[in-house]
Amino acid sequence: MKVAVIGAGWAGLAAAVRATQAGHAVTVFEAAAMPGGRARSDDDEAALDNGQHILLGGYTRTLALMREVGADPAVVLERRPLAITYPDGSGLALPPGPLGALRGLVQARGFSLGERLSLAAALARWRRAGWRCDDALTVERLLAPVAAGARERLLAPLAIAALNTPLARASAATLLAVLGDSLFGPPGASDLLLPRRPLAQLLPLPATAWLRAHGAPVLVRRRIRALRPDGAHWALLPDREEAALRFDRVIVATPAPEAARLAAEVAPGWAALAGALEHEPIVTLLLRMPPRPWPMPMLALRSDAHVRPAQFAFRLGPVVPDGDRVTLVASAAGEWIARGMDHLVVAALAQVREAFGLRMDEAVECLAARADRRATFRCTAGLRRPPAAVAPGLTAAGDFVDGRYPATLEAAVLSGEAAAAAL
What we know:
By secondary structure, the chain is an alpha+beta fold. The protein has helices at about 10-20, 60-70, 75, 100-105, 115-130, 140-145, 150-165, 170-180, 205-215, 255-265, 270-275, 335-340, 340-355, 410-420; strands spanning about 1-5, 25-30, 55, 75-80, 85, 90-95, 190-195, 220, 225-230, 235-240, 245, 250, 280-290, 300, 310-315, 325-330, 365-375, 390, 395.
């Protein structure tokens, strides 16, 4: 069939590759100048990413897709066992091999025996329940029985990073699905995969090159202003073009607000579900600071809603002579942004000084601050997400589409592959 894919993010690229492999004639339309969606680089030189992204070893479909389009995960990603390590060396590191989560718990540093036993009891309880709970349960309530130290320094940072949603509203059911499939999934499922290359080189540019080599155009700066049924087919109306383009099937792989706009006339009920999704920002700060020992390239930071905005710090790439280049990530940052970005930056600089024990004469400079105000949908308890099926011949793909995972790269790829299979 003649298939249009609207959007060249990770979901759209996955859909386009799988549909091309199935023998369909695919054309991809992307409104931006670069493919990649919310996990992209800013230009063809891939010099600057639109935020810090990581993958997990359990992202089996994403890693398989990368291999098929020519991006070797062993080359472009650095694999490390999951660790929530703080600058002072305390924290939890999961050793490789069987029962890594339990072994890591026993060896956790900076936690009392009572805190470790409390965490172990919670994990055992959730595992016995099959990593399932009532859809209406929030993460805050799920974690309440866990001792404060283990809850605030181990589970809360994981939950905020995974769901990008304030814990008082976040979905406990989704968090348990993530924990069950990673911490207690197949060997290596919980491993951190840290980018060695810019985001564009992980999937967006290799997939775009693969599609074009297989006769599937990827048209950038081509926004679709409307789509409408045309008998048994679909007509797409690109911006600045009067003539409609005719396709047998359409996969809408745009962010939820744009998908809702495109579907408003042809599927108003579906559009209402997609349009009702709330979004939560993520703030990324690039700092220059005095060199310090880093036990891991990713370190956890003590965070809270009022004084310390960032949950994690990253030092990736080579060490430069004029100081460390450090990236801070503040997830679920809506309340911080409401107070003002200047306030957030000042608080983050003080947070880094405290975490790394810097003296007053040691300068920390913010080189760049970036707020993605609609980074992900809010993964709230009891959330009703739109299904993949929009209308006959019209399918949605994206991390917001109904599924068991929050807004992750793996969720995007899974939805793209499912949309292609539904053709």
